[in-house]
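Re-running Probable chemoreceptor glutamine deamidase CheD to confirm reproducibility after the cluster update. Everything else is unchanged from the original entry.
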Amino acid sequence: MKAATKPDNIFLHPGEWHFASGPGRIGTLLGSCVSVTVWHPVHQLGGMCHILLPARKRAPGQPLDGRYADESVELFVNELRSRRILPASCQVKLFGGGNMFPGPRAMDIGERNIAAARRALAGHGFNLMAEHVGGTSRRRLYLDLANGDVWLTAHRHQKMLGI
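Result of re-run:
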């Protein structure tokens, strides 16, 4: 995790996550990786993660690792619990999971990442309110920590998702 400060602009690399209050933006660039954004409108705080893989076999006592969908979502849950915030009260969005190497012999890690993130979110009581997943293009996105808006650029188009 990046330092829990009030960011101006934070850029996440694969396996990183950040949770903070605004003003500022958290951004990342996605291919087959997926990103989850979490925003709480009352508390005016949120976060983003950059998930690289669906899951791993984690040994007992081994720390959570943001590279994996199940563990990254659990990191968000722990952060929310420390602030006494219920996952169901958050606005949650899912992005990415593109098939960057399509073809008959391609291993579609993007689809596996999407499925793992959806399972982890549902398993912890998050309600997914928007998503932009799959396809074959890369995505750049930003979470605005002042209002929870997510800005997405894909296929050379820019649009705002969410409230």
